[in-house]
Design goal:
By secondary structure, the protein is an alpha/beta fold. Helices cover 28% and strands 26% of the residues.
């Protein structure tokens, strides 16, 4: 099978298309034919080994897992003899720890795996496994979002941000989205009550305050946002900078305003599976949708990484595998 192999940290050019052995499922596994996956900033971070903290997970000197990629949507081609929940031909979406930059992958039946929403393409479903599975635990679990609160989403037009806007509205809050001029209408269409063009206005310099400030792109800091938080307000960042760790410790002991970070990718698979089923229900009810910016074939994944690293994508960048004729 074809796969993208990464044997050293570096620029997108370290990603190489190779022929590798097709995996065989164990008794408790399913073999999934991958139709689409996504390229996220996390993929770029693990490819570069930067921030360095990522290497404690992926390998200090070189990548331990040579096939990158964390999200997928596809079709089950084979099931192990002990598998009860899935059958051949099931259309699924999943979140896993590496390995989706390939035509096939084996996943445990008990993994973060669920039947795909019926009203989504494979690419849209794979996108849910990235941005939505990140935004939900940050807002629901870490910030304890409540109806009636005022929430600001910084980076509202990215993968995490587009889902965060929709989720914050679903939870009954007043949502302000921060994005560039070209994305204002997109963020409005997702349900934002207000939008701020960061090229023209700095939200930290206004007199508006919020119960939750969710920086979905890691472009702000707790110190710069502190004055924009209400008493007992919460600052969230998806980027584990060296600054936010001591701020989390400090604010957990002193003051009413908190800086918080969540390792959403390391949550138990059972929690992720529950969230996939939660999203399937919301999506099929028409309450959540994916935003797709661009699609690339697997062979052009280096170009996709270069585009994502520019930091201006709208929603998600999808990788389509050659054997997929169902997008």
């Amino acid at each position: 099978m074809k796969a993208i192999i990464c044997t050293k940290y570096g620029s997108p050019d370290v990603l190489q298309l190779k022929e590798v052995e097709k995996p065989t499922p164990k008794d408790n596994e399913v073999l999934v034919k991958v139709y689409e996956t996504v390229v996220s900033p996390s993929d770029c971070a693990f490819r570069k080994g930067d921030p360095f903290i990522a290497r404690f997970y992926s390998g200090l000197i070189r990548p331990k897992n040579t096939i990158l990629g964390f999200e997928l949507a596809g079709e089950i081609e084979e099931v192990g003899k002990d598998v009860k929940s899935f059958k051949k031909g099931d259309q699924v979406f999943a979140s896993t720890t590496f390995g989706t930059y390939a035509e096939y992958i084996c996943l445990p039946e008990e993994g973060a795996l669920a039947i795909k929403p019926t009203n989504m393409t494979y690419g849209e479903a794979a996108s849910v496994c990235d941005g939505a599975l990140t935004a939900l635990p940050f807002l629901r679990d870490t910030a304890n979002i409540q109806s009636g609160q005022k929430v600001l989403i910084n980076g509202a037009s990215g993968s995490v941000g587009t889902f965060a806007v929709q989720l914050a509205k679903y939870f009954g809050t007043e949502v302000t989205g921060v994005c560039s001029t070209t994305n204002l209408e997109l963020v409005k269409s997702l349900g934002a009550d207000k939008v701020i063009d960061y090229t023209k206005e700095d939200f930290t310099k206004t007199d508006q305050t919020y119960d939750i400030i969710f920086d979905a792109v890691g472009k702000s800091s707790f110190s710069s946002c502190k004055s924009s938080l209400n008493q007992r307000g919460v600052y969230l960042s998806t980027v584990p900078t060296l600054a936010i760790i001591p701020q989390m410790i400090w604010t957990s002991k002193i003051g009413s305003k908190k800086a918080l970070f969540a390792t959403t990718g390391l949550r138990p698979t059972s929690e992720k599976t529950k969230d996939l089923l939660f999203f399937k229900e919301l999506i099929e009810a028409g309450k959540i949708k994916s935003v797709i910016d661009r699609r690339y074939p697997l062979e052009q994944i280096a170009e996709a990484h270069k585009y994502v690293e520019k930091g201006h994508k709208k929603g998600n960048v999808v990788i389509t595998l050659e054997h997929n004729n169902k997008t």
